[in-house]
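Journal club prep — side note

Before the paper discussion, L.F. wants everyone to see what a predicted structure for a comparable chain looks like in token form. Sequence:
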Amino acid sequence: GDKLSGDLFISVDSVRENAIEYGTDFKDELNRVIVHGILHLIGYDDHTEEEQKTMRSKENYYLEKRNELLK
């Protein structure tokens, strides 16, 4: 139906390591991981290079929308 049900398991240690590796803020990386997980829940995959590009584009779109709402 119209409901989405699922679980996201996020390793805070991995988020912290990724933030350092990619030179981004911890909160920004955490938000990206959350959006990434939600995209998986609604059916997006990132197995192929094309799927990865789509996923990153969607992540950026929703993170930008989030930032606009917080202004």
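L.F.'s comment for the group: The helical segments are 12-22, 26-41, 49-70. Keep this in mind when we get to the figures.
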